[in-house]
Amino acid sequence: MSAVPTQPTSPSPSPSPTTPPHRWQFIRVGGADQVIFRTGEDIARLGELDQKLWVALACPTRGIDFDARTLDLIDADGDGRVRPPEVVAACEWVCSRLRNPDVLLQGSDVLALDDLDAGNADGARLIEEARRLLQIQGKPDSATLTLADIADRGELLAAMRFNGDGVITPETAEDDAVRATVAEIIRTHGSVPDRHKATPGVDRARIEAFFAEVQAARDWHAKADANDKALMPLGEPTLAAADATRKVQAKLDDYFARCRVAAFDAQAVAALNPSPEAYDALGANRLDLSADPIADLPLAPVTPRCVLPLHGNRINPAWTGDIAAFAERAVTPLLGARDELAETEWLSIKQQLAPLQALMAKRPDNAAAALSLAQLDAFLQTREPLLALLHDDEAAETHNNLLVDLEKLIRLQRDLVVLLNNFVSFKAFYRREGAIFQAGTLYLDGRSCELTVQVQDTAKHAVLAGLAKTCLAYCDCTRQGQKMSIVAAFTAGDIDFLFVGRNGVFYDRQGRDWDATITKLIENPTSVAQAFFAPYKKFVRVIEEQVAKRAAASEAAGQGTLTSFATKLTTADQATAAGAAKTPAAPAAAPRTAGRVDVGTVAAIGVALGSISAVLVAIFGKFVDLGQWIPVALIGIIAAISGPSMLIAWLKLRQRSLGPILDASGWAINGRMKVNVRLGGMLSQTAHVPPGARRVARDPYRERHGAAGVAAAAVLALALVVLAWRMDWLDHRLPTALQHSPTAAATVPPAPSS
């Protein structure tokens, strides 16, 4: 026995067994069943509605006429698209904080505190935060909160000492010592921007890192006891002496080692000092006393005396400053003032500073290690006050989050129903209330097109939108240096004069006017009537194009002939003189007269016209022989010509829908959303004189068809008579008619017998 495949479960949660199923109401429009939101209960239980009955399953957060901030609050994952789970979550979130969700149907941006559910923990917190905000704004007795009150939240938080962003600025600290600590942290560890203030500050990570370094430096200083003579023979100044010695120790060891070798053998002196070639290479470049090539030279000229001058010009210029600091901070305090330093004296200094040097090797490698003990103690005294400020600011983040919740609630109270009527159903579109995807109205070619959608990429959009079976005109709109692209659907009227480059005016949803130019056109029929005349218009257009081409070719040929003839006339004397000089006795050929028609050509044209007239006469004769079936034949001819075009138009109009247009713009349309002929006539309205208006004068430049129409009718009647005579139709029909007329039979004499 084969296993029966299970159906996929619906993403919408099913009602609990104790809760009766919700009774929805639908309306059939656009070829789909669309839900109607009548009460707040419909919104609260939206999660129970099968998503297969939703009109849309996703929409972008940008490029539509809807508050972007509201969509960002609904878009939980921040991917720039709103989907059913996020819409359901928003509905459940706002309904759980209101006593009666029916207030959502009003679409107001004024929140009455009495509408919040005080029995709900979330609602009670929002009531408390709303009253706190009104208290700060000086309106403690107000019972309502507006979106404008929340919209100024940034300015409100900027004016507050603690705004909940976890950033402490120098202005936040009221104590000078704490302010100095904040400035030092910014100097050593950088700053972070404050979300609500212009001044940068420091956050918890930077504060904790700074005090960790300060504490490590203070712990190291605790080991360096100034009263320990073995460790610090000079007391506190021993640290400076050790620092100065550490900087030149490697260089001093190198110098005295060279001097020892020179004392061992005088022949090594030249090799231990820089060679002339080294100075030649050094002199070939631009000299910099702090550069490595000079710093790598010995501290002083190497001699067997093993004595280092501490002052004067015999010291390497790159080390003059460091040697001077060493002499001032270490040599003089430990050995006394002197101008030279012997090797034995250098060894004595190293021995005295060795314990401290070993301790300094363990000194923390950070910015705080360079601070004095007094500075470190001063910074550590500000640690607790600074952390207390940080705690107070972080505690305000709870109020900040509640302010965001209040903003979200007010925005959903105002905008949620609008979104549902443009997402779950398309009530706003089919009732022509202005759907959020409609960008505005395009006025072009004597029509106003209301079905316009903003487009980001015309080429990409046209690939999918062409499946809508709708006549689409892509336009580039410009206004005061701004530019945007739209696509407009022409759903009524003809499309004979729609072409790339034609200009119009586009009015966006804010009423601003833009210059619009057609850049791409997707042609599709707008009605069956328009498709009826389409073949004839195309036939006339082809004839006009061919006639225009032939006329242009004839004009070009005529212009060439006239130019050639004029050239011959103007240069006739020169050509005659030149010909006479070469062959004076040669007779000139008689020129052919321009414009002369050959007799053979005329005869050929006559034969062709005769053949054509014979064919037309034969066709017309057969047509006349149909007798009473002539109207049927006419209808058949018209049906053969216009029938295919009308059939194709009828099929396309049945398939005309809104879905592909919106899908190409980033929507996910769940149904076809048909745009029938009646709706199309409303979306693209042609120009009509308003009711009650009258024309006060006739058009003086109107086309006069009276005389021409009479002449055409006369010519047509004459042609019919001639053709009937040629086909002997009159001779055949007249005796038959006389036989059925008694008066005519009495007056007509009998035909003579043969």
Explain what this protein looks like in three dimensions.
With 754 residues, this protein is α+β, with helices and mostly antiparallel strands. Strands 11-13-12-15-14-9-10-17 form an eight-stranded antiparallel beta sheet. Strands 4-3-16 form a three-stranded antiparallel beta sheet. A two-stranded antiparallel ribbon has the order 1-2. Strand 9 and strand 10 (447-449) form a beta hairpin. Helix 8 crosses helix 15 and helix 9 crosses helix 13 (320-335). The longest helix is centred in the last third of the chain and has 43 residues, at 528-570. The model is unreliable at 1-14, 588-595 and 733-749 (pLDDT under 50).
Write a compact overview of the structure shown:
With 754 residues, the protein is of the alpha+beta class. It is 50% helix and 10% strand. It comes from Variovorax boronicumulans.
Choose one word for the global shape.
elongated
Report strand order across the widest sheet. Answer: 11-13-12-15-14-9-10-17
Total E-strand runs: 17
The largest sheet, given as strand count, sense and whether it forms a barrel, is: 8 strands, antiparallel
Number of helices: 27
For the termini, the CA-CA separation is 101 Å
What share of residues is helical?
Answer: 40-55%
Mean pLDDT value:
81
- Specify the structural class: alpha+beta
Sequence stretches where pLDDT stays below 50 over 5 or more residues: 1-14, 588-595, 733-749
Over the alpha carbons, how many angstroms does the gyration radius reach? 50 Å
Strand content: 5-15%
Protein name: EF-hand domain-containing protein
Region (Disordered): 1-21
Keywords: Membrane, Transmembrane, Transmembrane helix
Biased composition (Pro residues): 8-20
